[in-house]
Known about the structure:
Oligomer: single chain
Shape: elongated
Structural class: alpha/beta
Amino acid sequence: xxxxxxxxxxxxxxxxxxxxxxxxxxxxxxxxxxxxxxxxxxxxxxxxxxxxxxxxxxxxxxxxxxxxxxxxxxxxxxxxxxxxxxxxxxxxxxxxxxxxxxxxxxxxxxxxxxxxxxxxxxxxxxxxxxxxxxxxxxxxxxxxxxxxxxxxxxxxxxxxxxxxxxxxxxxxxxxxxxxxxxxxxxxxxxxxxxxxxxxxxxxxxxxxxxxxxxxxxxxxxxxxxxxxxxxxxxxxxxxxxxxxxxxxxxxxxxxxxxxxxxxxxxxxxxxxxxxxxxxxxxxxxxxxxxxxxxxxxxxxxxxxxxxxxxxxxxxxxxxxxxxxxxxxxxxxxxxxxxxxxxxxxxxxxxxxxxxxxxxxxxxxxxxxxxxxxxxxxxxxxxxxxxxxxxxxxxxxxx
Length: 398
């Protein structure tokens, strides 16, 4: 359908507002809202800032006050029609007296859906599908979680230009720049869980914690020409607090998850310290004396059933996973079609030999390649960050 310019402009602003909630709304979606008065002037704006806080519509309507009566509300996700931690947004819109509601994406959650139908039943004009693709992209973690019943997975890796993540002797610190590493910590901080394999734990003894620094934005250092399409990496510490969002989330510590089929994680591993909660995923039949929070999963071949892992994490309200495992674990996630987004940091350096960034991923011939499409190409200090996703993602964008 042809979208009126005014609808496109105001919905684009709502999508932008929704992005301010990245990293603080889980297990809720990110949502933005713009309210116009009867004369078509912006009367209120808002976004869902944190789980349990006021929804985007409520924030925007409060700002608009009586000016909302007879006006139009633009919202990136269908207004909820159920009572959870807060009341139904459909009723809030009705009480405010808006005459029209424009929606980008219908709500796939059967518990919350129905807002559009309720509004129409009460004589409100409802238009749906405006900038749906853009709103989907900004809310893709939660939409994957709601539609597929599993956590959304972003695989991150750092490598040289020839695709090496470590030298022949196993050394890997540091391939990329301090600016790139700061950026990784910002992405970690926005995720619900950070996942690594036992190989990484044994080789590097990582903390797997989020320690975001003071840089202002995902490409703040070394900005130059850049191309961006769709999703832009969330930056929690530069997100507006209060104001249009109506509150703040406070500190978060992403869950650390170790994929450890046989339960070999050392008891003194740094990933088991008290700096963040940790879950160790082991096989159902693994005999281990490891004293940790264990998640027992069925085997799938030589490793664990990774889809079962993501469904178990979703049941624990883990919406987004940041995968930082080594090449073997990354290859298994990719082989099973469980990578939703790839974030690659490439350093202007060459090794020629050493460990590849990606292991076996189920590709036997060139026609079986996992093809991706780029969302963003941007400089990070002396390095380049590439953000891409599988060319086909059935079930994720509908």
